Amino acid sequence: MRVERKITFHGQNFADFYLEQTTRVQEKIEYVFKLLKTVERVPKKFLKHLEGTDGLFEIRIEMDGNIYRIFCCFDEGNIVVLFNAFQKKSQKMPKQELDLAQRLMKEYFSQKERTDEKGRNKKR
Fold first, then answer.
1. 6-113 — its CATH code?
2. DSSP-derived pairing of the beta strands 79-88 and 6-9
3. What is d(CA 65, CA 50) in angstroms, rounded to the nearest whole number?
4. What residue spans define the domains of the chain?
5. This prediction's pTM
6. pLDDT of residue 92
7. Confidence grade of residue 117 (pLDDT, cut at 50, 70, 90)
8. Which of 24, 58, 91, 102 is the most exposed place for a label (fewest CB within 10 A)?
9. d(CA 106, CA 54)
10. CA distance 68 to 77
11. Other beta carbons less than 10 A from residue 109's beta carbon
């Protein structure tokens, strides 16, 4: 079954990471994003919920023996919000990357709560 999801990012971390990658890695990222946008149940090979977190996921990319991870969450079910990304160099998840993703996710929802759908601050 096809779905329509929107992909957006919070902060500059993901954009900076993406621009540093080779064209081939960028193309693989775009391929996985296409799956995220259109496939109802994305295979765990490409998307995995991170245990012990409140709704944080990792997008999993493999290219030429290198492993890349992009942290994200779902908002309103059909919006994928990207936070930060890194090239994985060991089996263990880098704590600083995970902490950054959790901080960015908290910041995103806090900021969203303070603004209306047009991006203006809500009146209190």
1. 3.30.2310.20
2. parallel
3. 22
4. 6-113
5. 0.89
6. 85
7. low
8. 91
9. 10
10. 24
11. 16
Alpha helices in 1-122 (DSSP H): 13-20, 23-38, 95-114
Q: What is the pLDDT of residue 77?
A: 82
CB 42 within 8 A of CB 31: no
Cα 68 to Cα 25: distance, rounded to the nearest angstrom: 9
pLDDT in tens, 79-91: 999 999 999 988 8
**Cβ 14 vs Cβ 80: under 8 Å:** no
Q: 3-state secondary structure string, 17-48?
A: HHHHCCHHHHHHHHHHHHHHHHECCCCCCCEE
Per 3-state DSSP, the chain is made up of helix, strand and coil in percentages (nearest 5) of: 35, 30, 35
CA distance 21 to 105: 23
Residue type, 61: I
Kindly tell me if the per-residue pLDDT of 10 is higher than 90. Answer: yes
Please indicate whether residue 10 or residue 117 has the higher confidence score (pLDDT). Answer: 10
